[in-house]
């Protein structure tokens, strides 16, 4: 798979307890022309690297990497993955998140319907241990308009802002400089605001 349509970048650090579930959600995608780059940020937990390596040996779409420079945080790992990626489209998935099975397929359908789009986003559901176990903290206010989606405080940490939500056209993401490595919190809203400007 030299030129997959979609690249999925997963930064990980000591996440062996949930990484397997994350990778299975990628494996279950109804859209199959993807590469999944699992990039370990210097885990001290050997199992995290073993899980990534196991997936890469079983399915050539999965590739396991170790960050080749000093641990620098999730955005440095995301940018490293952006540089490695070969897809026309790119999605970032944190190693404690899971995709619904049709996520990538449905977003690509929107790109097909409107080719001028730079990104297609979706909402997300936060849960504690199992899907459906939704924390009150992450129940979002229903938006009255797109401005509400963008700027309501209850939607700022979720809604369309969450890291795994947007599927990006890679060239558009490169044009805005990728992820800022200057910040360690609120990095996904910062990226999305730059994309809107």
TrEMBL record:
<dbReference type="InterPro" id="IPR029044">
    <property type="entry name" value="Nucleotide-diphossugar_trans"/>
</dbReference>
<feature type="domain" description="Glycosyltransferase 2-like">
    <location>
        <begin position="7"/>
        <end position="133"/>
    </location>
</feature>
<dbReference type="InterPro" id="IPR001173">
    <property type="entry name" value="Glyco_trans_2-like"/>
</dbReference>
<dbReference type="Pfam" id="PF00535">
    <property type="entry name" value="Glycos_transf_2"/>
</dbReference>
<protein>
    <recommendedName>
        <fullName>Glycosyltransferase 2-like domain-containing protein</fullName>
    </recommendedName>
</protein>
